Amino acid sequence: MTFDWVGYLSLAEELAGQGKTPSTQEAKLRSAVSRAYYAAFCKARNRLRDQEDTKLPPFDVHRFVWDQFKNSDSAARREIGTNGDRLKKDRVKADYDDTIPNVASLTVKALRLSSQILNRLDRL
Q1: Helix extents (H) in the chain
Q2: Residue 101 in 3-state DSSP?
Q3: How confident is the prediction for the chain on average, in pLDDT?
Q4: What angle do CA 69, 95, 33 make, to 5 degrees?
Q5: What angle (nearest 5°) sits at the alpha carbon of residue 84, between those of residues 100 and 99?
Q6: Cβ contacts of residue 99 below 8 Å, gap of 6+?
Q7: How many CB atoms lie within 10 A of CB 5?
Q8: Each residue of 37-46: pLDDT tens digit?
Q9: How far apart are CA 80 and CA 114, in angstroms?
């Protein structure tokens, strides 16, 4: 079944406390995947920028951030980069694909990967 993209507006209104019609579960799950990605991405980006004084490029910053970790000599950093790439692919599916066969399992995976990335970043 194709996702009804208007469901995102219902979710946005619901989140803003202005919901007129309840959002669908699929809209919630897709948003959860996206938010899980951005939690991990922004924390990784900010670590590079603020703690490691890495200059971020104006374009392709997502690829740049995950590549910085993947190309490290540190196994923990490589794991962060690899999981970041995986999570980004899932986020792109959630944000753009009309149909996701099992959005619930994709969401569980995204939450797990994001949590692992955030935990690894905290331990660097």
Answers
A1: 7-15, 25-46, 61-70, 75-96, 103-123
A2: coil
A3: 94
A4: 60
A5: 10
A6: 1, 2, 3
A7: 11
A8: 999 999 999 9
A9: 9
> How far is 13 from 17, CA to CA, in rounded Å?
6
Q: Which two three-digit tokens encode residue 4?
A: 């009804």
Using DSSP's 3-state secondary structure scheme, residue 74 falls into coil
User: Do 117 and 38 form a contact (C-beta atoms < 8 A)?
Assistant: no
Structure tokens at 54: 């890495």
Between CA 104 and CA 24 the distance in angstroms is 13
1-38, pLDDT tens digit by residue? 788 888 888 888 888 888 777 888 999 999 999 999 99
Take residue 91 and report the two structure tokens written for it: 């986020």
